[in-house]
Design a protein that fits this description.
Layout (H helix, E strand, L loop, with lengths): L1 H72 L27 E6 L5 E10 L3 E6 L2 E6 L5 H6 L4 H6 L2 H17 L3
Antiparallel strand pairs: 1-2, 2-3, 3-4
Length: 181
């Protein structure tokens, strides 16, 4: 009887061992499948990243081309509406060169903006992207050499009212719409 119990116990242990080996093999197989799935996903993400980088480069080139075209076309500013009771708005500043790089900008009050990239020219100033983020620099805060670069007349700028600034912005938007941008 004792031998019989020992045989049963050994049989159970032997069966448990084979079950354990089967689980280890299945676990290894599952790990290999998971690695293969992760590898495929990484390959897909890398190809998507390459495509997005290429698309970004193409869009940047198209943006630069469009900006160069706008500067070359530079239409005349339309007259202000006749029903406007405010003083006539001054002419818009001259168009900006196609290069968006402004380098380091130092304002009259000593603020420094490093690695400036021109984003937008408005009636009251420029919007730039710099090392500290995106900010707007008013023409009146700029040093005279930078004001001249954008065709700003300080005498006109000091006389601009809020309504005139709004009229200039509306004119800029109308010009951009007529040019298809």
């Amino acid at each position: 009887m004792n031998y019989f119990l020992i045989l049963i116990i050994m049989g159970l242990c032997w069966g448990g061992y084979f079950e354990y080996r089967a689980l280890v093999r299945q676990s290894a197989k599952d790990q290999q499948e998971a690695k293969a799935e992760v590898s495929m996903e990484m390959d897909k993400l890398e190809s998507d990243n390459k495509k997005l980088t290429a698309d970004n480069a193409q869009l940047q080139q198209e943006l630069n081309d469009a900006q160069a075209k706008l500067v070359a076309m530079a239409p005349a500013v339309p007259a202000a509406p006749a029903g406007n009771s405010a003083a006539p708005a001054p002419a818009l500043p001259a168009p900006v060169r196609p290069s968006n790089s402004l380098g380091t900008i130092i304002t009259r009050d000593g603020k420094t903006f490093s690695n400036g990239q021109l984003l937008k020219v408005e009636a009251s100033g420029i919007t730039i992207s710099c090392a500290s983020g995106i900010t707007q620099v008013k023409f009146l805060e700029m040093k005279p050499d930078l004001q001249m670069r954008f065709g700003f007349d300080p005498r006109l700028g000091a006389e601009l009212t809020e309504a005139q600034v709004q009229v200039l912005e509306d004119q800029r938007k109308a010009i951009a719409l007529t040019n298809g941008n």
